[in-house]
Design goal:
Blueprint lengths: L2 E6 L7 H14 L3 E5 L2 H7 L2 E4 L26 H13 L4 E6 L1 H12 L4 E5 L15 H22 L2 E6 L6 H9 L4 E3 L7 H13 L5 E6 L5 H12 L3 E5 L11 H19 L5 E6 L2 E6 H6 L6 H10 L2
Parallel strand pairs: 1-2, 1-4, 4-5, 5-10, 6-8, 6-9, 7-8
Antiparallel strand pairs: 2-3, 10-11
Helix pairs in contact: 1-9, 2-3, 5-6, 6-11, 7-8
The structure holds adenosine-5'-triphosphate.
């Protein structure tokens, strides 16, 4: 292939810019032309496309979000939308596409592949909820952002000798919660993969206080419940002052960590290598620190493995 496109889709994630930069610079290095598509599949259908060069990705490495913008498109999910998208790609002479996004975006990529258009997908989402890869772009940054927030909240919680429930992102996967619970020394953790046992949690909080703990931090993944609702229940059951903090979009923003920039750079490079060799219909992933790729459909069908060991560790260390 000599002419490729790149877009970001779904929720933005820190490190997406590093992936775009890697795609553009690798393509230029390999004497390929590269086109940036704005606003995900929505912009693709509308033909919001500009050629990119080495300079158009200068000074973006440290920036969160995505310079190509992102969007969600219902029209793209229809046959009419898909046809329009493929038509636009053909008009621009684009032969292959790199899609950076979450599993919804991968389904869109698969739809294009099934209609004969080669796509390579790169996992960019803070949730780390993509089964085929051990890590997604943005996850490490989100974990560090949450950790910073936990440490700040800890100061005030300790001063007031309270319990604080911190609600973090993770609708289906508790990865952000597990990692930040371990890194932030949380006293409790609630995630969608594990049934909620409020009584057990409250017992632990009380036992901790009886042993002399001056505060308790509970990390709650959004898929496991609402912090504001738990606040009342825990206060009632423990008889201790309890507060809720919902971190929300703060977890999505900020400069990517070195780990995310390096991961994104490696994945972007690999995606272009695949397209250069006329290989599409792949998802780029990382396994045992090796960049690998999988068939998109197979990748989407893989069950997300729950990291039981890490969860157990969080529980053991939270006593
Ligand atoms: P995140 O995990 O950060 O939310 P995502 O990529 O999963 O990212 P979605 O909103 O699910 O985000 O998907 C982004 C876009 O991908 C959608 O707006 C739609 O255009 C396309 N898409 C999602 N699901 C499908 C599907 N089943 N078939 C075709 N296209 C889809």
């Amino acid at each position: 292939m000599k002419r490729i496109g790149v877009l970001t889709s779904g929720g933005d994630a820190p490190g997406m810019n590093a992936a775009i930069r890697a795609v553009v610079r690798t393509a230029v290095y390999k004497d390929m032309q590269v086109y940036g598509i704005r606003r995900g599949f929505k912009g693709l259908i509308k033909g919001e496309i500009d050629q990119m060069d080495v300079k158009s990705v200068g000074e973006i490495l440290h920036r969160g979000g995505t310079i190509l913008n992102t969007a969600r498109s219902e029209l793209f999910k229809t046959e009419e939308g898909l046809k329009k998208a493929i038509n636009v790609l053909n008009v621009f002479g684009i032969e292959g596409l790199v899609v950076i996004g979450g599993d919804g975006s991968f389904r869109g990529a698969l739809d294009l592949c099934e209609r004969g258009f080669p796509v390579v997908a790169i996992p960019g989402t803070i949730d780390n909820d993509i089964a085929c890869t051990e890590q997604t772009i943005g996850f490490d940054t989100a974990v560090n952002t949450v950790l910073e927030a936990i440490n700040k909240i800890r100061d005030t919680v300790t001063s007031h000798e309270r319990t604080n429930i911190i609600e973090v992102m993770g609708r289906h996967a508790g990865d952000i919660a597990i990692y930040t619970a371990i890194a932030g020394g949380a006293e409790g953790i609630l995630i969608p993969e594990m049934p909620l046992d409020i009584d057990k949690l409250c017992k632990r909080i009380i036992e901790g206080r009886n042993r002399g703990k001056s505060s308790s931090i509970i990390i709650l993944a959004e898929g496991a419940g609402k912090a504001v609702e738990l606040e009342k229940i825990i206060e009632e059951k423990t008889g201790m002052e309890t507060r809720a903090t919902v971190l929300g979009y703060i977890q999505r923003g900020g400069s990517p960590t070195a780990a995310d920039i390096i991961l994104a750079s490696r994945m972007g490079y690999h995606a272009v290598e695949l397209l250069e060799n006329d290989i599409g219909n792949r998802v780029v992933a990382i396994r045992r620190n090796q960049i690998v790729d999988y068939d998109i459909k197979e990748a989407l069908d893989m069950p997300k493995e729950f990291n039981q060991d890490l969860y157990n560790l969080a529980l053991v260390l939270s006593i």
